Amino acid sequence: MKMQAEVIREGELEKRSDSLFQLWKKKLVVLTKDSLSLFPDGHSKRAKGKELGFGSILKVDCVERTGKYIYFTIVTKDRKEIDFRCPDQSCWNASITMALIDFQNKRAIQDFKSRQELEQAAGTQERRLARAP
Q1: For residues 71-98, b (16+ Cβ closer than 10 Å) or e, as one string?
Q2: Taking CA atoms, which of 35, 76, 117, 127 is between 20 and 30 Å from 55?
Q3: Rounded to a whole number, what is the largest CA-CA distance in the chain?
Q4: Which residues constitute the domain of residue 12?
Q5: SS3 of 101, please?
Q6: Residues β-bridged to residue 51
Q7: Would you call 29 exposed, middle or buried from its count of C-beta atoms within 10 A (0-12, 13-18, 19+)?
């Protein structure tokens, strides 16, 4: 059973469709410390949504500001680009970027600690072997 993650921010964002005409479609968006979930406009969070886990996201890129919107792209680790836009003052791009950076920093600290523990365990094993008769 999956635990409910703490919601950092919830609201509306527009995503460019992958179709030939590349229309902008409104999505209900839920940002947590681990992911960005997208739900079809007009549907509750109980509807089938798409979750972009931060483990699969490389960066938030291509921020451009026009008079009405901020346009940005989420780049996944498999180099897929997902285009979004939000009203100029909503700062969704900043919220997503900060949550992604926080996630990546925590992951880097965990990786570092894991490497240290492995190195310490290997060093202890070497000392035991050196003392063995």
Answers
A1: bbbbeeeeeeebbbbbeeebebbebbbe
A2: 117
A3: 77
A4: 7-130
A5: helix
A6: 37
A7: buried
On whether residue 12 sits in a domain, the answer given is yes
Does any domain span residue 24? yes
Q: What tens digit of pLDDT does each residue of 4-44 get?
A: 678 999 999 999 988 888 899 999 999 999 999 999 876 66
Has residue 93 got a pLDDT over 90? yes
Q: With CA atoms as reference, report the closest residue to 45 among 25, 60, 31.
A: 31
**CATH code of residue 17:** 2.30.29.30
- Of 103, 97, 95, 119, give the one whose Cα is nearest residue 34: 103
Residue type, 8: I
Q: Cβ atoms within 10 A of the Cβ of 16, count?
A: 17
Which of 19-23, 57-61, 109-113 has the lowest average pLDDT?
19-23
The identity of residue 12, as a single letter, is E
Beta pairing, strands 50-53 & 24-32:
unpaired
